[in-house]
Amino acid sequence: DLSMNDERTPLVPSGQSIQDEPGRRVSRAAAAQRSKTDMYNVLLLSVGFMVLFSSYNTLQNYVTSLLPGNLGNQSLAVLYVTVCIFVFTGPTVVAHLGEKWTMVLGAACYCVYIASLIHVVPGVVLAAAVVIGFGAAVLWIAMGSFITLCSAPGEYGKNSGIFWGIFQMSNVCGNLVAYFVFAHVGKAALFTAFSAVAVAGVLALCFLRPVRNNGGEDMTAAAHSSERRSITAEIKAVVCVLLSPQLLALAYMFIFSGMELAFWTGEFPQLLDPESIGIVLCFAGIGEVVGGTGMGRLGDRLGSSITIVLGGLIYAAGLACACILKDSSPEPHLAKASYLAYIAAFCFGVGDSTFNTQCYAIIPRLFDEATALKSFTVFQLYQNIGSAIGFYYAIPLPMHGDDGSLGQVWVQCFLLSAGTLLFVYVDRYKTRKLEPSPEDLEE
Q1: In this predicted model, what pLDDT tens digit does every residue of 126-149 receive, in sequence order?
Q2: pTM confidence score
Q3: What 3-state class would DSSP assign to 168?
Q4: DSSP state of 210
């Protein structure tokens, strides 16, 4: 069926055109130009996030170790609880500002939190955690919607993988810099540099181009112009989507994707020598890049079910290595860390990127565009509930230290198993049939 209900126009044989809207005809050249704009946006979005999170992700890996007492865990837990509260405002903010400026606003909130760590005052840090919680809530919802608008049918996994692979270079770059400069500068100087880098990431997002449909209309604004409702009405709409059978089944994987992130960025670093955290977590970043670029395309080719199972097995291997580190404390081999630490970090990175790219890819295959925005909201809600739980329960149930236990590992194993099985069920039996890809239409 060539009359697709999609903003995108498939490629057509040279010299022909296809009907887009009544009275309008679109050439192959126009479709090719739109495709170039979409790829420009995906790449610039990826680079902007990479720069911003080279600062934030690296900082998050250190705050549980560097801040006094449990302030690091507390601030991160407050952050993710705040996301769960403000996530319902995401669709309304996107509808009023559009995806681009919503992402700029959300990214600016990250700068506030990073800057609050230059001179640590507990009350200020916790207040800044609330600010970044709002920013994170709207940023990731807008990002998911923007990637969807820039993706033709059948390209959700590929574009999500491109984004995730480039974005997660942040873990490599940020941790490498932190590792080499950590011993030579104070914490205040390090966090000041992180703040400057984060601002550069915000500025990059300002140069995103509008996503236009076949009629030349700006879809990043027009797609939501009819949805500007009150926050109360938006919350009701999101709750209706949240209670859909598909998302209830996916809730286990969504929650797990937040909990596993909290584990390997918050608890796992505490199993390491502080001076080795940066270099070890570089391997998590390498795993994220490998997983993002490889698993995204694998998901499009072989299906999300096979990909999510493979990612789960790789992540489980990382958990096994972490358990050995905790129980046997093997001798360090490289930069004050055991080879097992590097293997575990790499496995965590591949697993995390797999879970996220496949969750982002399955949503557009479950719902149409209008409902997909609310579905990204639900995904962010569940994921941040998982992260909040992960940072909170790590305080009374630590894995590190003489009194540490494997309680966190068993909880993750349960959620990973249940989440994988239900994800496969939804992917196999509940997703809607995609429109033909441009390549198929050309043939």
Answers
A1: 999 999 999 999 999 899 889 888
A2: 0.74
A3: coil
A4: P
